[in-house]
């Protein structure tokens, strides 16, 4: 088969034509024969069995029956009419019903001619009926290229409206296989195919669209899923290798006065083994001569900041500057305050740059940054502006990675003649499967233990009917000298409703706690007012902070020991986990109380049970991934890479691991894919990189 036949525009396939081609392009992204071939069914109907009318069960299941239409009539109803046909086989009678398209159906139906019908049955007035059945004359049915397992393809409302049905997709798919003779190049090496007992590519594609049996369908799906995940992993691993080979990094070979002095004299607590391990991994990267690209994952409160500071001190000891970029002003101020305090005994100049830094101060920062007087610059997106020029930036740290797009990160690369080392930090634990696919080109470090002396937060779920008991508990905690957070959900679409929820809550709290000082923080406040209220709470002037989720990231108040989350069912798992992490910062026992009404969906129940049963962010992230899927978890900037056609990153976790293992083995033995036996991988990979779309080449 000529390879370029698959790049033929879909308009030229028999049975498509310009109108349908336009719909397929707009609605399903199918532009070429290749796209159609890689448009996979999302489920299958088992049509291995023909039912008799007398043996039908009242289950509204989808069934297939052979019989004849003996009579047609139109029945008036409240709105419009319905067309009803008597359909019989040798065991009984049922009705076929149509609520629209009567004229066309009446003209095309043949009386007393054998049909195969398929659809859902209803039991009504002592008789079975089937609304809008799929129908095919028995003689046509016998001619078709068909299989017992009928594929069902994804569709849209517009396609259904315009008559591009599942049956039509099936027909053009048959046409595609006829025109190409079903011959497709294999894209995996003989070694991989033999080791994993994979069926050939052509057989897999045929059986995924026209499965001959359940067994062959399973083999076809495994083969195609493995291939998709294998090439994603190959791509990520090659990218990582090239970065290390091509992109030279500054060599930080000195561990000098700043690092040594801080470690020996000013470290406020003993590092955990996990922190020591991660610092070692970072030191090794910084001294390797290749540019570091490392993702540091650590749960809320696991001590990422101290690791970040010690990494920056290594940069300073080698004559370089460092910067730390955070997604919000509040968080960058907190980093600034925390690091300034930690470095108070060291001779280091640390500055803060955010959107609200005044012009005069900005000029001073720009000047001192260029002449090297500033050692560490902390800030928000403001760091990315072209005016911000460093004398010698050696290390850039990005906090809460998922809040920044790739384009924003790459601006940091251009802040020196060689790109600075990059350390990306996140407190949103990313499940291993997702990390392997999204950040497979980054090296990953994990801080998986909490600093000593931290007590695990106790989490409970309480219904609104227990509110008085909860209030009593709050009073007891305040009497012990503790502070309380009460958080209300934020639904962007309805700020008025959120505000009302928050104000109603605030009023009822004020009534219940007349003798206590209360702070309130929400998105509609001016930044200065918000900071003022936050500051009062941080200084302990107020006992209770009533807020929307603006406090989700950042704020560190060791004395706050209770987090109450109102309407907890309206929050996602990772958000609940982040909010819970606002307490438990001190040595006292902390509590998180999830308040909800009695009506809860299954997903909400799962989320609440997960929160109550574990504090482990990685375990929570795994559940979140299962509930929400990868696209939602990562946001649009990241999920583009996971535009998977057939594999599912959650369900196919094991296939993903196998694919990564094989990709690693091959690159270890043959990093340039130069060996003859890997020629097919090299060719396919080249096509992939050219088209930027994994499935545009694999056929």
TrEMBL record:
Keywords: ATP-binding, DNA damage, DNA recombination, DNA repair, DNA-binding, Helicase, Hydrolase, Isomerase, Nucleotide-binding. It comes from the Bacteria. The lineage of its organism: Bacteria, Pseudomonadati, Bacteroidota, Flavobacteriia, Flavobacteriales. The keyword Transferase does not apply. The keyword DNA-binding applies. Plays a critical role in recombination and DNA repair. Helps process Holliday junction intermediates to mature products by catalyzing branch migration. Has replication fork regression activity, unwinds stalled or blocked replication forks to make a HJ that can be resolved. Has a DNA unwinding activity characteristic of a DNA helicase with 3'-5' polarity. SUPFAM superfamilies: Nucleic acid-binding proteins, P-loop containing nucleoside triphosphate hydrolases. Pfam families: DEAD, Helicase_C, RecG_dom3_C, RecG_wedge. Belongs to the helicase family. RecG subfamily. Residues 466-631 form the Helicase C-terminal domain. It catalyses: Couples ATP hydrolysis with the unwinding of duplex DNA by translocating in the 3'-5' direction; ATP + H2O = ADP + phosphate + H(+). Residues 285-447 form the Helicase ATP-binding domain. It comes from Autumnicola psychrophila. Its EC number is 5.6.2.4. One of its GO terms (molecular function) is DNA helicase activity. This is ATP-dependent DNA helicase RecG.
């Amino acid at each position: 088969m000529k390879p370029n036949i698959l790049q033929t525009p879909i308009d030229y396939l028999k049975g498509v034509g310009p109108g349908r081609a336009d719909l397929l392009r707009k609605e399903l992204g199918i532009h070429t024969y290749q796209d159609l071939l890689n448009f996979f069914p999302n489920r299958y109907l088992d049509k291995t069995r023909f039912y008799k009318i007398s043996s039908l069960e009242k289950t509204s299941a989808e069934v297939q029956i052979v019989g004849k239409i003996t009579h047609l009539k139109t029945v008036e109803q409240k709105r419009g009419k319905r067309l009803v046909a008597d359909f019989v086989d040798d065991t009984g009678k049922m009705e076929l019903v149509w609520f629209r398209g009567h004229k066309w159906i009446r003209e095309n139906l043949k009386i007393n001619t054998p049909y195969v019908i398929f659809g859902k049955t209803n039991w009504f007035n002592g008789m079975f009926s089937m609304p809008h059945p799929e129908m095919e004359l028995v003689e046509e049915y016998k001619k078709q290229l068909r299989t017992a397992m009928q594929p069902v393809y994804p569709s849209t409302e517009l396609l259904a409206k315009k008559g591009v049905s599942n049956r039509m997709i099936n027909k053009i798919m048959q046409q595609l296989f006829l025109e190409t003779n079903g011959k497709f190049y294999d894209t995996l090496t003989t070694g991989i195919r033999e080791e994993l007992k994979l069926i050939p590519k052509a057989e897999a594609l045929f059986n995924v669209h026209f499965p001959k049996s359940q067994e062959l369908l399973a083999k076809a799906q495994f083969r195609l899923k493995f291939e998709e995940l294998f090439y994603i992993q190959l791509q990520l691993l090659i990218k990582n290798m090239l970065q290390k080979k091509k992109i030279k990094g500054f060599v930080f070979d000195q561990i000098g006065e700043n690092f040594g002095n801080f470690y020996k004299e000013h470290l406020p607590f003993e590092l955990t083994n996990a922190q020591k391990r991660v610092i070692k991994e970072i030191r090794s990267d910084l001294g390797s001569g290749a540019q570091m690209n490392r993702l540091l994952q650590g749960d809320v409160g696991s001590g990422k900041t101290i690791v970040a500071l010690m990494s920056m001190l290594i940069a300073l000891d080698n004559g370089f500057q460092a910067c730390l970029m955070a997604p919000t002003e509040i968080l960058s101020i907190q980093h600034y305050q925390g690091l300034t305090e930690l470095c108070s005994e060291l001779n280091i100049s640390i500055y803060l740059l955010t959107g609200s830094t005044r012009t005069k101060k900005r000029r001073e920062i720009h000047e001192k940054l260029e002449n090297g007087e500033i050692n560490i610059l902390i800030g928000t997106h403001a760091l990315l502006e072209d005016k911000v020029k460093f004398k010698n930036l050696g290390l850039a740290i990005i906090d809460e990675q998922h809040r920044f797009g790739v384009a924003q990160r790459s601006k940091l690369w251009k802040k020196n003649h060689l790109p600075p080392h990059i350390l990306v930090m996140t407190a949103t634990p990313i499940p291993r499967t997702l990390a392997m696919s999204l950040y497979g080109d980054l090296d990953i470090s994990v801080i998986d233990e909490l600093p000593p002396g931290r007590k695990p937060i106790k989490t409970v779920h309480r219904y609104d009917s227990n509110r008085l008991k909860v209030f009593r508990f709050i009073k007891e905690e305040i009497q012990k000298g503790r502070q309380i957070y009460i958080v209300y959900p934020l639904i962007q679409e309805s700020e008025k409703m959120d505000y009302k929820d928050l104000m109603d809550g605030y009023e009822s709290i004020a009534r219940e706690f007349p003798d206590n000082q209360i702070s309130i923080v929400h998105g509609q406040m001016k930044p200065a007012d918000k900071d003022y209220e936050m500051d009062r709470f941080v200084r302990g002037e107020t006992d209770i902070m009533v807020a929307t989720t603006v406090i989700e990231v950042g704020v560190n108040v060791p004395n706050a020991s209770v987090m109450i989350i109102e309407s907890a069912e309206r929050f996602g798992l990772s958000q609940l986990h982040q909010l819970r992490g606002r307490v438990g910062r001190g040595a006292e026992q902390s509590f998180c109380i999830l308040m909800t009404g009695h009506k809860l969906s299954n997903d909400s129940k799962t989320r609440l049970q997960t929160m109550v049963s574990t504090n482990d962010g990685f375990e929570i992230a795994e559940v979140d991934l299962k509930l929400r899927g990868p696209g939602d978890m990562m946001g649009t900037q990241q999920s583009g890479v996971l535009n998977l056609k057939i594999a599912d990153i959650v369900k196919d976790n094991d296939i993903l691991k196998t694919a990564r293992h094989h990709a690693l083995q091959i690159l270890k033995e043959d990093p340039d894919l130069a060996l003859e036996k890997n020629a097919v991988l090299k060719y396919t990979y080249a096509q992939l990189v050219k088209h930027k779309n994994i499935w545009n080449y694999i056929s």
